[in-house]
Amino acid sequence: MEKNIDKILKELTLKEKASLLSGGDFWQTEAVERLDIPSIFLVDGPHGVRYVADRHHADPAKKATCFPTAVNLAASWDLAIIEKVAAALAEEAKALGVDVLLGPGINIKRSPLGGRNFEYFSEDPFLSARLAVKFIRTVQKNGIGTSLKHYTANNQEYKRFSIDAQIDERPLREIYLAAFEKVVKEANPWTIMAAYNQINGDFATENEYLLKDILRDEWGHDNLIVSDWWAVHNRVKALKAGLDLEMPGPDPVNDQKIVEAVEAGELAEEKVDESVTRILDLILKAQSTTKEKNELPAAEHHQLAREVAAETIILLKNQGDLLPLTEAKLEEKESLLVVGELAEEVRYQGIGSSQVNPTRLDTHYQALEDKFSEQLKLHYTPGYSSEAEREENENLKEKALREAENKDYVIIYAGLPDKVEAEGYDRDDMQLPEAQNQLIKEIAAANPNIIVVLNNGSAVDLREWIDNVSAVIEAGLPGQAGALALADIIAGEVNPSAKLAESYPLQLEDNPSYLNFPGSSGTVRYGEGIYIGYRYYDKKNQELLFPFGYGLSYTEFAYRALEAPDHLEAGEKLKVKVLIENTGLFKGKEIVQLYISQNNPGLDRPPKELKAFGKIELDAGEKQWLELEVDHQDLAYYHPDAGWIVEADQFKIMIGASSRDIKFTEEIQVESRQRLKALTAETPLEDWLADPLGKKAVTEVLSSEQIEEAGFFKPWPIYRLHFFAADQVSLEEIEEILDIYRDL
Ligand code: GLC
Q: Residue 691's domain spans which residues?
């Protein structure tokens, strides 16, 4: 293919140009043989290559490694883990002849009910951004494109093709766009995928404010924007807004509309050329990577999937150190009962476009059999069935109870069935299936040595039995090798280190989106504003089941010291060091989190915001310093009048093992060259006096007597002063205050 795009543009007919603006088929761009322009493949997904040959998903996808899903990858808080998975995905994409991998998904988890929460990282935009930057940089460094999705506010499945997400400017910027902004600026994704839904009355695929004003003009994204599949409504409006490629294709009707709009003078051909240029640029990028189609390194990547999964599985409870089941502990034990349909019918990923056809799939029962059969006699009973009626579940439960009575250990595999959480539908509640809850409660009463393993893509309500069981492991949806990873953890060959990237509330009603999820009559109002996840729970001091950033280990860590500055110059990077000691018996990894809080913000801010994290591995008894850094700009909040602003102010730096387990808090004076210039003639005098710049301007013009005299009028807009106290304060003096302030 000719590399000079301008040259190609000159040779393309308008009709050919328009044909390039929609796909050639379900997964490919259009080719133009006459000019030797090839098609390229865009294929899902975020945790594995899902190469489906035809548009009707008729035949299963080609086999590929199903890595842990995003909910698990985020729980690792580990950029090295992300890098390994991303590099392996790129390798498999190349082997399968794929040019662009349709991921990562970074939509924020606004409600635990979101059907695709398993496919997204977190409730926190900072954590989501860090992980996505590493993912995209690694995949693209290996010559494969990515598609950062779904831009934006695709936070629910209910009416996802049409719902209008009504979001105020500040939460839109600070929560729902924040991760996209960082990733666009730091990782330069080859493509961005525009979402199905509307945002503030405009479909994402034709939303000029989002696609052009923000994404292109403000953030400088000049790469391609692709629609989600069938997400384009008005093709000409979308093109004008900056949507380059409509997928899937082909769409001759829309192509013709583009031709007609140009011929009618309603659409400048330059606009068409801009998008054609981005498509040709994407094809050239894709072509610059040789893709020798070859065998997948299936065995090697299965082992990698196992190692990675073990870093993403969270130990939520381990009363009496029941776990791990080490050889020493098992010496005088002889039996292990494995309970649960999910132990055999493994749930390891979510249904929908991200679904991978795994190269191999281990079951939990077999993994435990391989691990423990030399020391323990294993028994299995389903205990429940997601397909059975109540009565049969009762029988299954009774059978399991009888089996559990005389066993040394019981491991129950519980979790959410595919039919309640997936792409395309949200959950109705946070409950596990009632048959599982009943079974766990009653088995716990019969046998104290009970371990519950969960497979679920988002927060679940565990209150019915959490106090009655000894150990709980949150395994999420850990990919094809998840069962092996869990067996490694249960046996103590891997010490769990993962931590929650989503808060687990006690009940759904405690979640801040509860009153406004999933919306009605075509609109969903993000009434909670910036207060989502831990930002809300901490503001309300709400009791939680498990907080954001929480996870246990088989060992213990002590936070011995924090070294942090007490002053930060404008633009200076904040650098701190934390001394961590492993005071337990096992080698382990600790995820350390750094949160900030601003003392006197111009606009209300959450009590804490995650701004750095790190992970350190320590032998038993070892202690090391861990360095954490925060960019000055990350101390900012978004002010609708002033944009992102770091205000000169006192901040708190909090070091935590979780968002609710803060080990150190230090005050720091932060300087800034930015000034919040939001005062106007309509602003009350009292607010002028409360603002550092406002006060400077007022006191340069008015004497302390005049300010004193203004007493009663301070809550009134400053310009009213000359009405109330014309003999003390003239209109000229008010104007002079405004002028001085503007020039500060
Ligand atoms: C789906 C999903 C998107 C996926 C695309 C292609 O509907 O929303 O994430 O990449 O269509 O399968």
A: 685-743
